[in-house]
Amino acid sequence: MISAQLPAIVLLLTLLSAPVCSMIRNGDNAWKVAMFAVWLSVAAAIALMAQVWGGNTISYHMGGWAPPWGIEVRIDELSALVVILITLFGALVISALRESLRTVMRSHRHSLYYATFLLCMSSLIGITITGDAFNVFVFLEISSLSTYALIARGRDRRALIAAFRYLIMGTIGATFILIAIGFMYMVTGTLNMADLAVRLPEHTDNRVIQASFAFFTVGIALKVAVFPLHYWLPSAYTYAPKATTAFLAATATKVSLYVMIRFVFDVYGVEFSFTQMKLDVLLIPMSIAGILIASLTAMFQSDVKRLLAWSSVAQLSYMVLGMALLNVNGLTASVTHMFNHAMMKAGLFLALAAMIYRVGSSHLRDLAGIGRSMPMTTAAFVILGAGLVGVPLTAGFVSKWYLISAVLDKGWVWVAALLIVSSLMALVYVGKIVDVAYFKTAPAEHNAVKDVPVSILVPCWAFALLTIYFGLDTRATAGVADRVAQALLGIAS
Q: SS3 string of 60-125?
């Protein structure tokens, strides 16, 4: 039956479509192939979630070889949620790509771009569903290499510098992760993550395992862009092609955060990670500093792309803080915000890409009056911005509510106050954009500007409407996240 092969299908659809796109000369035809592949992947991802809904787990043995000797694909509610994040948001972004790419690169290069995009998407799916630690590293490197290529395709020369900076930082992070996996294999003799979770508790006093944990923490923190290891992110998001930023903001750092959660809670274990290695003592101060400093920096940006990039650093710090609080509400907030922020930030960058498509700039002064000339695009941006602030009835409010509840559960009223202050900072920098868009006079040369084609506008509004929907119906986000949090913390539901 096809349903039994879904774990392989969800990966192979995009992986095999990538070389097909690279061989197609016509960019429009390559786009059609990519669209077909990604939307089928969305359907497969939703079907997988239906199979694991309620706490079930799928163990798929590649080639029929049973784990731990064979390669295992392992899918539970957390990994299924992340696969939906990658496929659905990637599909919405690629739906807008055909029109957006025409102003970025020559048409004969479009097919190679789609191939790289699909390769990146398939590798992110691979990271999420594999049950083998070494394959996590392999897929992580494939996603990184394709991401470097996607960023470097920006028209601004600084895109090359941003890609090179990401290459250096990403390589350091990947090397540390590989060393960590090598150390674990050296001690336990296995690479299967479920098997590692069983064997590692016997070696928690082993200095090699402790060194492995240290290498892994630094390596994955670089990939997640945990403050102050975020150096690569603002430039990468700012100078990458417009729609590329929307995809990367939605997926790359979120999948890395998923890997961090999976290894810290499942592979190394809660007792070792937090009681013995004191991971929370490291992550909580870094997260609080990241929330405040990145939010403050975003307030003073004049380029909206860079503003949203710095906002991502702050929002990622929310997720890491929730994880480090080590309670159900905190971990629920982390997983929920992983999904919600991916949705909101992809939509914001896509709406901004639509504005740049018309006015050719993301500088605040060049977006003056754009709310009147591009009313539909700007309205979608405002809804998504409200979600980023955490306005009630939006998805952003849900995850921030859980995070503040988690902090209050620990009795840290001052941290809750800082979180409220950071939301007010978000209100300031989002409000600054709204003020320019609606209350400033448009430059004379922009009088003829009109809204973007439907092919770009529909994905923007899809993200905006999803932000409202998941603010009202939290069963597929906070509901799943709550069950995941209890399972990861070893609490019987």
A: EEHHHCCCCCCCEEEECHHHHHHHHHHHHHHHHHHHHHHHHHCCCCCHHHHHHHHHHHHHHHHHHH
Cα separation values, 94 from 86, 242, 245, Å: 12, 12, 12
Give the tokens for residue 189. Answer: 């003799």
Rounded Cα–Cα distance for residues 344 and 388 (Å): 7
DSSP string for residues in 397-456: HHHHHHHHHHHHHTT-HHHHHHHHHHHHHHHHHHHHHHHHHHHSPPPGGGTT--PPPHHH
Rounded Cα gap, residues 67 and 468, in angstroms: 42
Burial of 66 from C-beta contacts in 10 A (0-12 / 13-18 / 19+) = exposed
Cα separation values, 69 from 8, 61, 187, Å: 18, 10, 16
What is the rounded distance in angstroms from the CA atom of residue 349 to the CA atom of residue 279? 33
Dmax over Cα atoms in the chain, in whole Å?
A: 71
Confidence check: pLDDT of 427 > 80: yes
Are 40 and 78 contacting, i.e. CB atoms less than 8 angstroms apart? no
Q: Tell me, what DSSP letter sits at residue 58?
A: E
Claim: this prediction has a pTM higher than 0.90: yes
CB distance 332 to 482 below 8 Å: yes
Weakest-pLDDT range from 13-17, 400-404, 443-447, 488-492: 443-447
Q: Which residue shows structure tokens 């043995």? A: 61
Confidence of residue 447 (pLDDT cuts 50, 70, 90): low
Task: Name the helix (H) or strand (E) containing 393.
Answer: none
Closest CA to 319 of 236, 227, 218, 421: 227
Residue 320: pLDDT above 90?
A: yes
Name which of 360, 364, 355 is nearest 451 in CA terms: 355
Helix (H) or strand (E) holding 59: strand 58-61
